[in-house]
Structures are given as structure tokens and as C-alpha cells.
Amino acid sequence: MYIFCSFPGISVFVPEGAVPKGYSEELYITYNRETMDKPKLNSRQTMLTPIIICGPASMTLVKPMILTSSHCAAQISSDWKYSIYYCKGQSRTSSSWEKIATLGEETINTSVYCQLNHDTCSMVVDHLGWYCLVGEPNHDRHPMKLLQLAAFAPCLSTAIDYNIRIYVVDNTPDALESVLQTEHKQGGVLLQKPQIIQFRYSGTNLCLSIEEIMTGWRSKLAANYQEIPFCHIWSGASSTLHCSFQLERTEASVGMVHCRIEVSQGIDSNTQSLQITRTADEMDLEQKSNCCSEHDTGNSMRIEPPNKAFRICRPYRIELCEVLDPPKSRGNDWRLLAVKLGVDRYTNYFAVRPSPTDLILDLWEALHREEGALMDLLGVFQEMGRPDAVAVIEKQLTSWL
């Protein structure tokens, strides 16, 4: 079976020994943004990740796997209260979901560990199925999530009207991917790189206005201004939420279009601008390019074989567990390792496992796919004052030479 694979914005890490020896099963991972499949949330709650689907749900795991997804919380802070929702799958009703963890309120019986970084959410899970991260204001706080503003339009032609669509979606790769697929079917072209805007839990609507329309065009809107209700955005009512600005050509000879669209959430919020300048030739070239690259930018999967996915081979991993699992009077054992690696939010989750070190290293491997990660781990062991662990990593590094 494969070890590490990913779609845009989501991935699964299958640690060595996660499935019984000799066991064979096809593993799959994808995401879902269909409204009908989401858990039933109250008006304060909002989805911060897509639904991550990894299965089959019946698959037997000897040790946890790690699911990672991009999230759209503006910052990891006490303004948010985070919860993990789980569904075994197959059912397409909101009633089949259950909240299995609230961060900061875990017990030794909590079945999932959640590691939040500035733009990713990693879940250490014992069972496969459907998972998602949900956020809500902590007491009377006003947390913010990040949204993408993506402008699309058809190719500029001799038609009288020109329709610009502004999508407002969560700042995660899968959300934009859904819009790109929708627009491709309609012949739409992305007009510029999507812009990011902060959206606060305040009840205030998102305001969009069209400005600086060039001579030769005029807006068909009476007020040049639209609003998207706060609840439509916060609830995630649609995966392709958007509004349209329709321009009418007043001069037949004009061969380009230019305007600016201002987006803000109330007077005191930050404002984002979408500068739109397009010519007929430019749009035609981009549409052809999009058609040619559709299959290159869609649901591609990256799979890493075991010799690349595992930074530490099994014999050396066992050595590290043997030296770091036993408690030390100085505290420089697996507990300090968790602190140094930034995964010490709820250490009891690791403490009740057969080998806390083994699970911490699994999470480390899932989170650190960059070159040089093993050298960084060696530095951590040096800081911990553990020459025995340093020696193990040095043996691993030497084996690659």
C-alpha cells in the first residue's frame, strides 16, 4: 500500500505498521464541499476545512493515521473554539455526524488528536471516515476567517453585455478548485490571482462595489453596489457563492474592459481591491491555456513510496522509542520532544499509547515533508541533551550516504 499521498490542500500519512502485517486494502482520500453532506451547525459555527474523506471506514488500523488539511482561520487564537466532527460515511444526512472533540476539552477517552498550525489542521485518527474542523466564537469574541475573492468572466467578444462574477469562498485550495471546475464548464476565465480578505464574526454583510469603469462601458446595476449577507458566508451555504456585475457596452469599437471592484465588511474592516483590465486577445489566449491545462491542475494526486515517505527507518525508530519512552528525572524524554516539536497541546493523548515517542515521530513525519527535516530533528535532540538519540539520527543520516 502507499504511504503518503495528497490532493490540493489535503493529505494522508500512513505510518509504518498502521495496518496488520499481510493485510491489503485500497485506501482513498478526497474532499467534499456539498452542502447536503455537511454536519448541521448552529448560526455561530462555521466550517474551517472541507470535509476530508478517507476510507474505507471499515479498515482496521493498528496505529493511527494522520489526515492533514488546509484551514481558513485567520489566526490560531483564543478567539476561536475549535471542534472536530466525524461521520462514519455512507450516509448523506447531517444527523449522522457527531462532535468527537473540542480542543482544550479533551480527555483520555478522546479518539482524535488535532494539531493546528497557522494554515493547516492535522488530525491523528484511529478510524477512517469523514472528518472536518468547525470553529465558533469563544464566548463573546469576534474571530476572523480568511476568504478568497476570485473574479471570472467569459472571453471579451462583440456582445453588448459583459458579465463579471466575483466568488467568495474559504481560503483553502479545494474551495478554489471547486470554483475553477464550475467556471471551466461555463467557459469562464480567472481574471487575476485571487485576493485574500479577512471576514469577522460580526453579523456585518460583505459589501462589493464596482468603480472606475472605463469609457465605453457602463454598469447595468442602478447603484453599482451589492451585498452578500453575513449568514450566507459564515454558514457556507454554497460552495460557489458569488455575485455578478453586468457591464453594458456603450461604444461598439472598444476592445478592452477595465474596472475596479472594492470589497469590504463594513466601514472599519480591511478593504480588498480587484483590478480588472482585459483585452479580447488576452482573454482568448488565457481561455485556450486553461483548456489545455485543465487536467494538469485538477484533482492530481501525489504518492510517495516508503523509501521517501519515512525519514527514519524502522530499526532506528525502535531505538529512539527505547531511549525516549522511559521517563527521565530531568524530563528530557518524549515529553520534552513533544514540546520541542510543538505538539504538546494535549500530551495525555500520547501518554496512553504503547509508545508515545513512536506516535510523536509519526506526527513529525506527516508535518515535515521538507528537505533538511531530519537534520532539524537531530538539532532538537542536541538541545534536549540526548546524545543517545543524536547517535541514532546520525546512523540514519550515514545510511543515506
Concise structural overview:
The chain has 401 residues and is of the alpha+beta class.
Notes on the protein architecture:
It is a single chain. With 401 residues, the chain is an alpha+beta fold. It contains 10 helices and 22 strands. It has helices at residues 173-186, 230-234, 280-297, 306-309, 314-324, 334-340, 348-351, 356-367, 373-384, 387-399, and strands spanning 4-7, 10-13, 28-32, 46-47, 51-55, 65-70, 80-87, 98-102, 112-116, 120-125, 129-137, 144-153, 161-170, 189-190, 195-200, 206-211, 217-219, 225-228, 242-249, 256-264, 271-279, 302-304. The strands form 4 sheets. A 6-stranded antiparallel beta sheet has the order 9-10-6-2-1-22. Helix 5 crosses helix 8 and helix 5 (314-324) runs antiparallel to helix 10 (387-399). The chain is elongated and about 80 Å long.
Blueprint of the fold:
Blueprint: E1 4-7, E2 10-13, E3 28-32, E4 46-47, E5 51-55, E6 65-70, E7 80-87, E8 98-102, E9 112-116, E10 120-125, E11 129-137, E12 144-153, E13 161-170, H1 173-186, E14 189-190, E15 195-200, E16 206-211, E17 217-219, E18 225-228, H2 230-234, E19 242-249, E20 256-264, E21 271-279, H3 280-297, E22 302-304, H4 306-309, H5 314-324, H6 334-340, H7 348-351, H8 356-367, H9 373-384, H10 387-399
Antiparallel strand pairs: 1-2, 1-22, 2-6, 3-5, 4-11, 5-11, 6-10, 7-8, 7-11, 9-10, 12-13, 12-14, 12-15, 13-19, 16-18, 16-20, 17-19, 20-21
Helix pairs in contact: 5-8, 5-10, 9-10
